[in-house]
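Title: [Solved] ABC transporter ATP-binding protein 3D structure

Original question kept below for reference.
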Amino acid sequence: MSAPRTSPPSPSPCAATAAARVPLLQARELCKRHGGIVALDTFSVDIHEGEIFGLIGPNGAGKSTFFDILTGFCAADSGGIVFDRVVLPTLQAHRSAARGIARTFQNIRLFGELSVLENVLIGGHRHDGGSVLGTLLGLGGARENERLAHERALEWLRYVGIEHYAERPAATLPYGDQRRLEIARALAARPVLLALDEPAAGMNATESAALGKLLRRIRADGVTVLLVDHDVPLVMDLCDRIAVLDAGRKIAEGTPAAVQRNPAVIDAYLGSAENGH
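Solution (posted by the thread starter after getting help):
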């Protein structure tokens, strides 16, 4: 079965050039403090439709804080975000999801006692229709919605390659497959932008390479990807452009090749990251 499409087909080159004049996501002058600690300091970035955009930096640089602001889990002290030409409200995760932003978390957040399939069903609930009451009463329309929702959830499991685990409790999956399940659950929400917070954490080289193939496929199927990870070879190989954060400030942005040559990036991050520190 072909992969389910999460958004309309990729635009033609001419359309893509026109669309690039207005970024899909515009973050402007974001500032955030946690007590006396500066998490983000006037951070701005543009992300264009159809790209894989990387965000890297040392631990505590502000990457996850940006994700939390983007997806409505915390509010910026100042600054703002425009997504798909609409200003995102603060502290409203459901609004971000409804606009087409889905995310995974640095620490896996699955419903461990529920089955793998049930976790994906939860991710797709906004689009699958029906009602709890209708399902409990056994109404025909509700039963059909439930059947279709199960089919779609299984398609997403096939898409990420873990359909054989469908009935297992999520907590029993190998670590790398739990990461894939998180991605399947996020994709079930049919996002325009998929924000991945350290999806390769804890993976070996083989698993990381397989993840890279999956992310390229996701992009090819019409989803823009925002990637945070400490796997420097993965990020450099996958991303069209990369921004680098250090102590809440953006110190560089550009192509992977340009970022790798940047002395400030080497001093702040790449030198230690590539040595495994």
